């Protein structure tokens, strides 16, 4: 009940990121993916309630259950690629001492837009349909709408900073060394990212 609005939002973003790092994989793991979608829907439903009414027991309890399963390995068992959003954000927090969950919320939509192409559109469209109930005429249309829905949730409903400038990062001088440090795990992620790719994502989020 005493967790601040800022940390409730940041914690929810971290829980969602843990879930999505596992969710976006190329394995045909229906059980894990459907569970992940249920966790994300739980977070999206209950986090705004907890923000508006911090002592709402049901909202806090549902977030706690979702947080438990976001980190205990169930939704990633047998299908999780190397994570990429977390390594990129860890460098942000290391160099600029920003709140981890806020950094994840800023980077995730930027990463999703950057990797969206004909090969990945189906995965992101499934996320859009099953997490945000989006229906479009094409998978690309659904995928783009899903990214926008996630951005709206983070930045409007949860009141989180929408870019790196809003957390006090006013220059791009460290992006190259940060990207170099993050590039090793990101090379084995859902979409392989080079140092140059990571720099571009940082710039996209700037």
In brief:
This protein has 206 residues and is mostly helical. It has helices at 5-23, 30-52, 57-71, 85-96, 100-115, 121-132, 139-157, 175-186, 195-205.
How are the SSEs ordered, and which strands pair?
Layout: H1 5-23, H2 30-52, H3 57-71, H4 85-96, H5 100-115, H6 121-132, H7 139-157, H8 175-186, H9 195-205
Helix pairs in contact: 1-2, 1-3, 1-5, 2-3, 2-6, 4-5, 4-8, 5-7, 5-9, 6-7, 8-9
Describe the structure using short key phrases.
single chain; 206 residues; mainly alpha; globular
Walkthrough of the structure:
The structure is a single chain. With 206 residues, this protein is mainly alpha-helical. The protein is built from nine helices and no strands. Helix 1 packs antiparallel against helix 2, helix 1 runs parallel beside helix 5 and helix 2 crosses helix 6. The mean pLDDT is 97.
Evaluate the radius of gyration: 16 Å
Number of helices: 9
N- to C-terminal distance: 33 Å
Biggest β-sheet strands, sense, barrel: none
Strand-and-helix sequence, N→C? HHHHHHHHH
Please identify the structural class as seen in this structure: mainly alpha
Percentage of residues in helical conformation: 55-70%
In round numbers, the mean pLDDT is: 97
Beta-strand content estimate: under 5%
Instruction: Name the overall outline.
Output: globular
Number of strands: 0
Q: Which stretches of 5+ consecutive residues score pLDDT under 50?
A: none
């Amino acid at each position: 009940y005493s967790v601040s609005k800022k940390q409730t939002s940041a914690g929810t973003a971290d829980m969602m990121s843990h879930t999505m790092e596992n969710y976006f994989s190329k394995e045909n793991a229906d059980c894990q993916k459907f569970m992940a979608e249920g966790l994300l829907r739980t977070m999206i439903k209950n986090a705004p309630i907890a923000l508006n009414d911090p002592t709402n027991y049901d909202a806090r309890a549902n977030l706690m259950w979702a947080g438990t399963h976001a980190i205990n390995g169930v939704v990633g068992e047998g299908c999780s690629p190397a994570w990429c959003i977390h390594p990129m954000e860890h460098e942000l927090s290391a160099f600029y001492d920003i709140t981890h969950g806020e950094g994840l919320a800023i980077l995730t939509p930027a990463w999703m837009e950057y990797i969206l192409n004909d090969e990945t559109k189906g995965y992101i469209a499934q996320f859009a349909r099953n997490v945000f109930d989006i229906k479009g005429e094409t998978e690309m249309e659904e995928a783009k709408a899903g990214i926008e829905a996630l951005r709206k949730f983070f930045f409007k409903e949860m009141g989180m900073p929408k870019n790196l400038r809003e957390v006090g990062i006013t220059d791009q001088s460290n992006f190259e060394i940060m990207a170099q440090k993050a590039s090793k795990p990101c090379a084995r992620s859902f979409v392989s990212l080079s140092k140059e790719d990571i720099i571009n994502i940082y710039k996209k989020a700037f």
